[in-house]
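General statements about sequence and structure are easier to judge against a single worked case. Part of our work consisted of pairing the sequence of a single chain with a tokenised description of its backbone. The amino acid sequence and the backbone structure tokens for this protein are reproduced below.

***
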Amino acid sequence: MENFKRLGWGKGCTVGLMKFLVVGCGSIGRRHAKNLLALGHKVIATDVIAGSRDKLGQELGVKTFCLFSQAIAQKPDAALICTPPATHLALARKALAAGCHVFIEKPVSHTLSGIDAIASLARKKKKVAQVGYNLRFAPGLAKLKEVLRSEKFGKPLSARIIFGQYLPYWRPGTDYRKGYTGKRKFGGGIILEASHELDYICWLLGKPAKLSCFARKISWLDVDTEDNADILLEFRSGATANVHLDFVRQDYARGCEIMCEKATLIWKLGWKSGRNTLELRSFDPAHPERIKSVMLLDVPWDTNDMYVAEMEAFIAAIRGGKMAAAKVEDGKLALKLALAALESSKKGKQMKV
């Protein structure tokens, strides 16, 4: 966790016991439960699927409940909604009504209807409502935001974002055909599933004004959603970005290039390399024919680090701290872009956002 502490995260977040309810015992629910236990907190869990519920309970030694109503009656301090997107808002509403802070996994929903009501209810109840955009806690991306904010290399002009990974490899030990990612009715598809990229490019460059998208199912995978998408965004600043998303690529690729007025910044999220890097490329004034490369950040990378930092941010927000986190409004913007991208592809036209 030292990498995150250098960036200002993880300060004073593990003092005092809190009780967390994990709603949904799939892979992300188990990850959050493990991290919260490691941070010294109490965890209970619920899932309508007995196998998932029993697996988490036995593996982590936590008490589980078959019904949400039974679990919420235990009066947890906060609830983590880790179920398919189509169920997020209803469960978040019940948790807030019961007096819980809520953490909603991304995407915040599969529809815009009801999101404002959740934000309003959270404010009324004076509760934290956070959305799970964990890439904001990747060291290289956080450093990139810091560099862009300084405007040391001028304003951003354009960006290229990529995420590609073969869906059957996403969650080892599970059958992708049984998950929600490849099922439209549950809020699946690469655009909604990889809305991380839409969130972080807005985090870096601000709100877009227009977008166009071409999305299709191009593979042999047993899914009824798009598995490949290219989204072109035009920002209010005049900058543009191309976002490529797929769950077909046989190797792993995740990162972005931001071309600024004076240099290009390249962030790469390593998977098997175990590195998180941010590189600066520019012309060498003394030798214009050469490209000058400087590594601004190159740190060891453990995927779980950003999830731990994300939970620390949630806990700190509950306690009144100030840490980077995605609010419900941020989740709404990412979802609005994702839905507009799907509509653009369907209608074959540019959309205003």
